[in-house]
């Protein structure tokens, strides 16, 4: 993780000195930045998963993912202000390496890698799986496959929003002022749009991560208003709920830009809040279906797949193809129509999270058998067989809160944790 962040810092800093004649080099540097981002996003949840279990892990993951929109929003605001004050976008990006270096120092001094799966009574001390065979194992874990598809849709939407919504607002404002181009807008107006949308992103991200984790915990435990509908399928259900909430508010927020920017910001806040429901609890969900020695690779594949589709590029390309002219009004309308794709993907994401909810209990039962934990429901001869775990997963989940562990001897003479 330290190496990845250092590469990230150097690539960001170096990219700000590339001359405009060497645009290909700039693109290369920006691509290398993904190494550091991916390293942190992949390894950090695994470390948290090894350090904590149960509710403690859920809350720690919530804190980890809560600071992500906070950092993004602050960077968006501060970077745009530095670029405006110092007369170049490069200055906005030169601030980033300072935080990167601080992160490396903190990691070296205070972060120690825990033993893999120690807190989950893992029977395996194997190394992280690599190669094609482990990928096949993960694909067979249906909940992982469906939640990865759903998360890919969410990331597509979030990336597109961050890139194109401020541009759409600029087009709408230029059209309202009867300007021929957004370049004629006052720089203060552009800066204010960036600041306001950054605030909306920060607030929606923080509220969404907290609400998603809290609702999932309450639904799982059957507390407060969820007494009548307690379920162990809470993680994918709340993820689906967030995507369903985001769908109409995203669509409505875009439609309101020309009518009232303030109302549009409110709708966007609700949409971003719903989209961020899944950030922490989807990661927590993976910890309950993927064994400790496969989590790094599982996170890596999920991160790769979810970022494989370039949402901003595809929406921008479609907008260019259907735009009637370069006027701000036509540019806004083209973006509006292109945004039908992200709006539809919100609904598709909800669908796949709902499908994941139908498979999660079975996959969690298989997970517990694979790491050597059983809930005392099946007979001794059933312990350690994935088939019987599959058959009994509903009963196991119903009594999971009351489980006890003891060491017993099974017929093969080997010790198992029950």
From TrEMBL:
CDD domains with a match to the protein in the record: MFS_spinster_like
Topology versus the membrane: Multi-pass membrane protein
Subcellular location per the Swiss-Prot or TrEMBL entry: Membrane
Domain of life: Eukaryota
GO CC annotations, alphabetized: membrane
Residue stretches in coiled coil: none
Transmembrane intervals: 59-79, 91-112, 193-216, 237-257, 263-281, 301-319, 339-361
Chief location: membrane
Record's keyword terms, sorted: Membrane, Transmembrane, Transmembrane helix, Transport
One Pfam family of this chain: MFS_1
GO molecular function annotation: transmembrane transporter activity
Signal peptide: none
InterPro entries, alphabetized: MFS, MFS_spinster-like, MFS_trans_sf
Family: Belongs to the major facilitator superfamily. Spinster (TC 2.A.1.49) family.
Protein name as annotated: Major facilitator superfamily (MFS) profile domain-containing protein
Species annotation: Mesorhabditis belari
């Amino acid at each position: 993780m330290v190496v990845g962040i250092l590469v990230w810092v150097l690539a960001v800093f170096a990219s700000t000195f590339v001359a405009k004649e060497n645009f290909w080099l700039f693109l290369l540097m920006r691509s290398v930045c993904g190494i550091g981002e991916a390293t942190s996003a992949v390894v950090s949840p695994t470390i948290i998963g090894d350090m904590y279990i149960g509710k403690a892990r859920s809350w720690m993951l919530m804190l980890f993912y809560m600071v992500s929109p906070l950092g993004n929003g602050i960077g968006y605001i501060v970077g745009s202000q530095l670029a405006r004050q110092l007369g170049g976008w490069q200055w906005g990006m030169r601030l980033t390496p300072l935080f990167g270096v601080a992160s490396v120092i903190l990691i070296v001094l205070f972060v120690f890698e825990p033993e893999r799966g120690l807190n989950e009574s893992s029977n395996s001390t194997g190394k992280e799986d690599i190669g094609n065979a482990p990928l096949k194992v993960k694909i067979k874990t249906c909940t992982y496959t469906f939640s990865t598809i759903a998360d890919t849709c969410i990331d597509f939407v979030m990336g597109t929003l961050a890139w194109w919504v401020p541009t759409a607002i600029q087009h709408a404002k230029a059209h309202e002022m009867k300007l021929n181009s957004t370049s004629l807008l006052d720089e203060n107006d552009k800066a204010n749009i960036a600041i306001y949308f950054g605030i909306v992103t920060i607030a929606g991200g923080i509220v969404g991560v907290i609400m998603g984790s809290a609702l999932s915990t309450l639904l799982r435990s059957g507390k407060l208003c969820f007494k009548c509908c307690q379920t162990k399928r809470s993680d994918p259900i709340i993820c689906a709920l967030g995507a369903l909430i985001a769908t109409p508010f995203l669509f409505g927020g875009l439609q309101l830009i020309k009518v009232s920017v303030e109302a549009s910001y409110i709708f966007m806040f609700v949409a971003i809040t719903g989209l961020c429901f899944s950030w922490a609890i989807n990661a927590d969900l993976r910890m309950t279906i993927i064994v400790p020695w496969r989590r790094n690779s599982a996170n890596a594949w999920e991160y790769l797949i979810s970022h494989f589709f370039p949402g901003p590029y595809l929406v921008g390309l479609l907008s260019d193809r259907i735009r009637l002219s370069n006027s701000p009004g036509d540019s806004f309308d083209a973006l509006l129509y292109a945004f039908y794709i992200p709006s539809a993907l919100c609904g598709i994401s909800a669908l796949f999270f709902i499908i994941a909810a139908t498979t999660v209990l079975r996959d969690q039962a298989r997970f517990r058998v694979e790491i050597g934990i059983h809930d005392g429901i099946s007979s001794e001869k059933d312990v350690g067989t994935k088939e019987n775990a599959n058959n009994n997963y509903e009963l196991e989940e119903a009594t999971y809160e009351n489980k006890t562990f003891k060491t017993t001897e099974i017929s093969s003479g080997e010790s198992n944790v029950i």
